[in-house]
Design brief:
The chain contains no helices and 11 strands. The radius of gyration is 13 Å and the shape is globular. The strands form 2 sheets. Strands 2, 4, 5, 6, 9, 10 and 11 form a 7-stranded mixed beta sheet that branches. Strands 1-3-8-7 form a 4-stranded antiparallel beta sheet, with no helix packed on it. The chain is mainly β.
């Protein structure tokens, strides 16, 4: 059974760091695009970052460029999102999702399976 499980969220002060993990089971994630999305209260879910399933190309939403890094460990079948210099506006539930193709997309409708989400709260 295909499953994605996120972990690593929590409460952190502004300027702090967190590393989110997205562990996959039931499929080999290196063939598919894996995206990270977030949803803040009262807002739509938005794409944050993606890593492609072909050459591992990475993409970032403008507000997180230079602060977030997406990576993939094929041996562990896990994708990570390293988040540095966190800001209060990064507060949201973060989700990982797998697309049924290798290329990245920022559209939620392009992704077939989703994890349950992990809460990230940036506050002093």
């Amino acid at each position: 059974q295909l499953q994605l499980v996120e972990s690593g969220g929590g409460l952190v002060q502004p300027g702090g760091s967190l590393r989110l993990s997205c562990a996959a089971s039931g499929f080999t994630l290196d063939y598919y695009a894996i995206g990270w999305f977030r949803q803040a209260p009262g807002k739509e879910r938005e794409g944050v970052s993606c890593i492609s399933g072909s050459d591992g190309s990475t993409y970032y939403e403008d507000s997180v460029k230079g602060r977030f890094t997406i990576s993939r460990d094929n041996a562990k079948n896990t994708v990570y999102l390293q988040m540095n210099n966190l800001k209060p506006e990064d507060t949201a539930v973060y989700y990982c999702a797998v697309a049924p193709h290798y290329y990245c997309s920022g559209e939620t409708r392009s992704y077939a399976y989703w994890g349950q989400g992990t809460q990230v709260t940036v506050s002093s």
